[in-house]
């Protein structure tokens, strides 16, 4: 009686290992950008719950940049022009939209776009 072997060969294992390693390397490059985004969201929610009565857009930007430093958000990631306030449905909304570029391999980069809006409590000074 012949016994049939089952399993993966060494070459098959190496191919699987290369594919898993490639996706692991991609994750190592992308996870820091998403954890930084979570810090941005946390800072925005803190600013929204504190209220903005009598604050100007510049003071809100200063407060956010201070909170970003506490959340380990890189100084070069978000510029003041990325932070805007819009009037929606009779209220104000804080918007942040920015792009993050991360080098991957040789001349291949990842470009990730982040965008978040939160409603603000209070009135903004002009």
TrEMBL record:
Protein name in UniProt: DUF4845 domain-containing protein
Residues annotated as transmembrane: 6-28
Pfam (any one): DUF4845
The species this protein was found in: Rhodanobacter glycinis
Keywords: Membrane, Transmembrane, Transmembrane helix
Entry superkingdom: Bacteria
